[in-house]
Amino acid sequence: MIGLVNDNESADLAKFEALLSITNVASAGIETKNRIISEKGIPILNYAMFSDHEMVRRAATEAMSNLIPHEAMMEHLANGEKLRLWVSFASDYEEHFDCAKAAAGCLAMASADLKVAQSLVKCASFRSTIMSLLECGNLDLMHRGLVVLLNLLDLKDPTCFEGVMETGATRFCEAYVESFGGGITRKMEELGLSDADEGMMKVTLDLAKQVVSSIG
Questions:
Q1: Which of 43, 62, 99, 107 is the most exposed place for a label (fewest CB within 10 A)?
Q2: pLDDT of residue 199
Q3: Helices then strands (H, E): number in the chain?
Q4: If we measure between CA atoms, which residue out of 76, 153, 95, 86 comes closest to residue 126?
Q5: pTM score
Q6: Which of 128, 127, 106, 107 is nearest to 117 (CA)?
Q7: Cα 58 to Cα 103: distance, rounded to the nearest angstrom
């Protein structure tokens, strides 16, 4: 499957299907992650993320995300130049929502690692990306952004703490909790949210409260 993705002559549909299979296999456990990585999976999947075909690009992003928390994948993401691609993808939700969702999910998982977290807060577009995820109006993306923030704060690292504070995201969290934290059931009824969105809003409010609490 890795060879098919790496084959410049293979059709985009074939690459997409191969990437879906790799995504599923990568989620099975460390042994399958080891096999993918031993076949030069990280550079090949990373290259596929630059595909002109949106479905291939998204599937490659999802496949790489499923390699977390393998040590080799974490080392890859700790590289500031490589990490910038993920930050860029996460912010591109208006044009490529599914790919942005996958990239933001990757950041939400990987930001619990200190080296990745320190590289993340040093990315020039980190501040704008975090704020755009929080303010985009999509609860799934907001959820991922809040998890990133909470991971960074939970590390108790001065660099990460300063990076979070510089985003201004804590002020957003305070305002979000103040606006929707009290009388949440009534306010959600007024918003006309679906059951799924109601559940996700409760999750995001809880995360926002944790962020506020973490900064003391």
A1: 43
A2: 86
A3: 15, 0
A4: 86
A5: 0.91
A6: 107
A7: 9
